[in-house]
Amino acid sequence: MGQHKTSIHWERDTGHFNIKSFNRDHVIRFENGVAINATSAPEYTGNLELISPEDLLVAAISSCHMMTFLAIASLKNWLVQTYNDQAQGFLEENSRGRVMMNRVILQPQVLFSGSNLPTSKEQEDIHFKAKRSGFITNSVRTSISIQPHF
């Protein structure tokens, strides 16, 4: 159905290699040539100015939900004007005591235009279907909750 490739490059930039102080900065390159500078989460001595894998995971969940939501809305002939989300992810211990991105909260706010406007209930239904159908959502064990703002 689809294949997605990335490459990662990191290199040591000091004479030592110590768990508390080695450089976490690295480059992620995508197939289309886009590159982003990334690091570990700040809690794990990452660079506050760069993106962490945890940030990318939360963004991927939010983006996937949005794209699925937009596709469903389009099929229902609802004209989406804007879609904004303030997503939050929480690194926490799971029931086995392992740290993971245990839960993500999406807080989408969608503005529709035109004469064919969905009700709040219909919007909730689209969010439910988008959560159930999203490729990324279906790929993670993270608990994902949707708290739409109407």
Question: What's the arrangement of secondary structure elements?
Answer:
Blueprint: E1 6-9, E2 26-30, E3 35-38, H1 53-75, E4 79-85, E5 88-93, E6 99-106, E7 108-113, H2 120-133, E8 143-146
Helix pairs in contact: 1-2
Structural write-up:
By secondary structure, the protein is α+β, with helices and mostly antiparallel strands. The chain folds into two domains: 6-44, no CATH class; 53-146, K homology (KH) domain (GMP Synthetase, Chain A, domain 3), CATH 3.30.300.20. The chain contains two helices and eight strands. The chain has a three-stranded antiparallel β-sheet with strand order 1-2-3, with no helix packed on it. Strands 5-6-8 form a three-stranded mixed β-sheet, covered by helices on one side. A hairpin with a 4-residue loop joins β2 and β3. α1 (53-75) crosses α2 (120-133). The two termini are 35 Å apart. The model has no long low-confidence stretch (mean pLDDT 95).
Q: In terms of quaternary structure, what is this?
A: single chain
How many discrete domains? 2
Q: Low-confidence parts, pLDDT < 50 over ≥5 residues?
A: none
Name of the CATH superfamily of the largest domain? K homology (KH) domain
What's the number of helices?
A: 2
User: Strand order within the widest sheet?
Assistant: 1-2-3
Named CATH architecture of the largest domain: 2-Layer Sandwich
The overall pLDDT average reads: 95
Q: Which fold name corresponds to the CATH topology of the largest domain?
A: GMP Synthetase, Chain A, domain 3
Assigned CATH class of the largest domain: Alpha Beta
The shape is: elongated
